[in-house]
Every structure is written in C-alpha cells, then in structure tokens.
C-alpha cells in the first residue's frame, strides 16, 4: 500500500469515528444515517466496481495496446501523438472516471514518452489536468458528479450532459491550449515509433476489450451505473480466471482506502451540515454561478474537491449554481497536489516511474490554467 492509500485509510478512519461520535451524541439520527446510506451506497458501489474494471483491463494490456496504437497513429509527429493521448485521457475520464486516467493511463503514457526519447512532462500534465477538468460531462466521470446527479433529481446521463457539455468542452480545451503553448518545443519534435515486445495474453486482451465496448454505452443507458460496472467487473474477473491469471483476482482490487475515506467523509460532512442551523444555510445560499464555481475551486485547492463539494452543496440553490459548483470542484483542482485524490494518485504513480515533478512549476501553471478555465467554463453554464 502506497503512502497516499495509507493516508486515505487513516483519514477515513478518523472521519468515520468523528461521524459515529456525532451519532452517539445525537447530532445524527438513525434516519439520517439510513438516508445517507441510501444515497451513498450506489455511489460507492460504482467507485468500487469501476476501479476493479480499470485495474483488470490494465492487467489485460488494454491501456498499453491503446498507447501503442496511438504511437502508430502519430506517424512520428509528437503533436499528433499528444492529441491522441489527450483524446484517450478524455475518454477514459468521461467513462471510467478521473482516477482511472490518473492511476492507469499516466504510467503507460509516460513510459511511452520515455521509450520514444521525449520529455514526459507535457504528457504527465495532460493526464492529470484532463483527469480533473475532463470529468464534468457524465455522472460516472467523477464522484462529485454522482452526488450532484442525485441532488439534480436523477436525470438521465443525456439530460445531465445537456447541463454540462458546454463547460465540459471549455474545461478540456483551455488546459490543452495552455499545454500546447508551454510545451510547444517538445510538441514540434518528431519521433521514431518503437515496437514494444508482446507481453500480454492476446485472447484475454480481446475479450477484455469486448467487455469495455459493451460497458461504455451501458454507462449512459440510464441504468444505475453501479449495475453495468459490477457486471463488467465480474466478467473481467472471470476472463482472468479462465485465462489462468488467478493472482490478479484478489480482494485488494477493490479500492478499500478510497471507500473508507469517502465513507468517513460522507458521515462526517453530514454531521457537520446537520449541526449548522437551517436558517444559517439559507443565509449562505447562492444562485451566483461565478460565486459557486470560485468557492468550489478555492475550497478544492485548500482542502480537497470532495469535502469542498459536500460542504458547498447545500448552498447551491438551483441547477445552474450546482453545475457551476461542479465546474469549480472538478476543473478547479489544478493548483495544489492535494486538491483531488486523482492528483495525489497521479503523483504517486509518477514517483514510482522515476519522474520528478517540479512543484513550483506545477503550482504556477495550475494557477494560470485554473484562473482561465473556471471563469470561461462558468460563462457557458
């Protein structure tokens, strides 16, 4: 277990104890906990299932295959390769969640850049920024979206996308424009495509691709996302077992630290909201789009985007301000390393790959990109 997972486990356990203490003190009732469980169980179920899907797909070599195809599509032009990598990051984020992009796509993209003799930083920045800013479009793209989806009255994925597609598009294009400008010298280079050695089971990889192709439309079909994600996770586990890879199918596939962190956070934040008088919340309520978005962005970079969303959700008074809040907590966490769990996990994977991140540059570029992205995205809400 890495340092990030250990920290999540400790913080989650502390938050859960705080929440249970609030229950024991009477600040939370049994009905409150039951209502909270009914709201969050499908969310946590989806997070667990999609994490298993992504991990087993990675072990089957799906992401490595996609990156190799991207190298061939680039035809020696780095800027084309970068655009294909960016498209992969966006698709992975939208359908498989931002953590998938940060945890699984980042290492293979960075290793591909090194294999081709390229600076890995523009590709690393692309995956982490698009993991965050690209997570606005669908409910399944981000844990905050799943929570907002319920707050919005459980619209279909298409109805949700109708509310978010404009800011989602802006939130993708603006960071890409910044990267294109900052890393222009690298992107103008050329490369010679490498031929990686075949190290995966082709049959397993093909069947895993079939499962993912079926899963993606199922996630936007209107069925509760945890259902197709769970079926896909079981299917991929069965494929791994049939192909003789029993070591991959183990309990540690489930992201227990993340589930504990999120569960503890849900309970603790519910206790905090219940402790605030209703008239005080009414006084804080806002329908200002820019106010909701900037509050979300500031809160995410000071704390983390998930507690920022949970704390600010009660004061978003209508659909427009709630979508603006999502812009802030999804597209805004670009400045501090702890602004989102995806960024923390991304950093851990880069460290494992031996890539050093210049944090001063990360903070500066993130601040500029956040200052451009959030207002422009909110303007389209």
From TrEMBL:
Its main location: membrane. Residues 13-339 form the Citrate transporter-like domain. The chain crosses the membrane at residues 45-67, 79-98, 168-187, 208-241, 253-272, 284-303, 323-347, 359-379. It is found in: Cell membrane. One of its GO terms (biological process) is transmembrane transport. InterPro entries: Cit_transptr-like_dom. It is a multi-pass membrane protein. Keywords: Cell membrane, Membrane, Transmembrane, Transmembrane helix, Transport. This is TRAP transporter large permease subunit. It comes from Aeromicrobium piscarium.
């Amino acid at each position: 277990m890495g340092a990030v997972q250990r920290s999540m486990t400790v913080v989650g356990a502390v938050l859960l104890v705080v929440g249970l203490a609030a229950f024991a003190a009477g600040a939370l009732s049994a009905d409150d906990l039951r209502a909270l469980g009914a709201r969050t169980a499908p969310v946590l179920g989806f997070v667990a299932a999609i994490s298993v899907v992504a991990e087993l797909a990675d072990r089957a070599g799906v992401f490595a295959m996609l990156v190799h195809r991207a190298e061939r599509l680039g035809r020696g032009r780095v800027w084309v390769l970068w655009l294909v990598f960016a498209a992969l990051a966006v698709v992975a984020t939208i359908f498989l969640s931002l953590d998938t992009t940060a945890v699984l796509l980042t290492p293979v993209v960075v290793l591909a850049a090194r294999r081709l003799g390229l600076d890995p930083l523009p590709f690393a920045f692309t995956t982490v920024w698009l993991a965050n800013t690209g997570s606005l479009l669908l409910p399944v793209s981000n844990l905050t979206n799943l929570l907002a989806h319920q707050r919005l009255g459980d619209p279909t994925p298409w109805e949700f996308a109708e509310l978010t597609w404009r800011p989602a598009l802006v939130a993708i294009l603006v960071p890409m424009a910044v990267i294109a400008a900052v890393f222009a010298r690298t992107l103008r280079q050329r490369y010679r495509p490498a031929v990686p050695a075949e190290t995966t089971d082709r049959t397993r990889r093909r069947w895993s691709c079939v499962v993912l192709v079926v899963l993606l439309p199922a996630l936007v079909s209107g069925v509760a996302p945890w259902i197709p994600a769970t079926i896909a996770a079981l299917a991929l586990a069965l494929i791994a077992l049939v192909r003789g890879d029993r070591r991959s199918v183990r309990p540690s596939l489930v992201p227990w630290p993340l589930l504990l962190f999120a569960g503890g956070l849900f309970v603790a934040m519910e206790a905090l909201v219940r402790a605030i008088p209703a008239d005080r919340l009414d006084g804080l309520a806002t329908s200002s789009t820019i106010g909701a978005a900037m509050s979300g962005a500031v809160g995410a970079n000071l704390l983390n985007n998930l507690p920022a969303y949970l704390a600010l959700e009660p004061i978003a008074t209508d659909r427009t301000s709630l979508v603006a809040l999502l812009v802030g907590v999804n597209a805004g966490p670009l400045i501090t390393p702890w602004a989102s769990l995806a960024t923390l996990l991304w950093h851990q994977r880069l460290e494992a790959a031996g890539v050093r991140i210049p944090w001063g540059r990360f903070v500066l570029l993130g601040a500029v990109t956040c200052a451009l992205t959030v207002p422009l995205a909110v303007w389209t809400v």
